[in-house]
Amino acid sequence: MTDPLHNQAKEVLDGYVRRIQNLNAEIAASQEDRKSVYAEAKANGYDPKILKKVIADLERDKKDVADEQAIYHLYLRTLGWDLLA
Amino acid sequence: MTDPLHNQAKEVLDGYVRRIQNLNAEIAASQEDRKSVYAEAKANGYDPKILKKVIADLERDKKDVADEQAIYHLYLRTLGWDLLA
Amino acid sequence: MTDPLHNQAKEVLDGYVRRIQNLNAEIAASQEDRKSVYAEAKANGYDPKILKKVIADLERDKKDVADEQAIYHLYLRTLGWDLLA
Amino acid sequence: MTDPLHNQAKEVLDGYVRRIQNLNAEIAASQEDRKSVYAEAKANGYDPKILKKVIADLERDKKDVADEQAIYHLYLRTLGWDLLA
């Protein structure tokens, strides 16, 4: 007859492990879905890396993104790269 | 009258953006849930970092994990650290 | 009298460990130096995050960076954000 | 005759860019050296991933590493994996 304390500890630990394993599986499944949306977009001529950057920036304050872009192009122009010319 | 081609492009791009934003939200929500399970385990005396490592190793082949542990302790012992003494 | 084989293994393993530790220290020192250059630039009004992006892009083919920027702004404009207006 | 202010800004920005580029190159070179030491160790039968973990743990307090290992094996044993049996 194993030690009741050990059984109780096993049950608690098992509980955390299973809940986290389920959430890991959920996250992995959603990440796979996301990967296939990017793959679909790519197949239709969209650039996944740029699309990801656009989606991230759309979550931010528009003025912050605009300011960041302005400073980025200012630095590049100062260094001799005028990408918007 | 805006350019129909532009509207069509907007619709397609909007579609990808919304689908990815929804999946991003799903992933973020599951990650938050996972964080709270680890926080709950921590509050009950479990070490989240070690729990995370155990859960990752439980997904692997048991023999691989055992071999890895044996080599890890062999290297440490060779270097003068016998953690299992 | 310890096992000669063990001594030899210890010597070899020690050798790798020391060489890697030295390289880790070198890398950490250069990363610290780099952090202080960014801190200096920040103190003089430059944005470290944008500076880092500019430096990364300067290492790339200028046309690729320009195309990427054009597509980025095209996507954003299509979605209703015209940052360059 | 270009704007002196612009020249001064270019010089300052150039200065930061060059210093960071040099440090990036230094870091990249040391990382390459480190990669070849791991490759050499691998060629002589050592496991790079475990070696990396050992080197990281040797930088820590020995008791902390020993406690962590003890808890790790306790959790695994509680869950039915006794790797040290």
TrEMBL record, chains A, B, C, D:
The lineage of its organism: Bacteria, Pseudomonadati, Pseudomonadota, Alphaproteobacteria, Hyphomicrobiales. Pfam families: GapR_DNA-bd (PF10073). Residues 6-40 form a coiled coil. The keyword Coiled coil applies. InterPro entries: GapR-like_DNA-bd. Keywords: Coiled coil. Residues 9-80 form the GapR-like DNA-binding domain. It comes from the Bacteria. This is DUF2312 domain-containing protein.
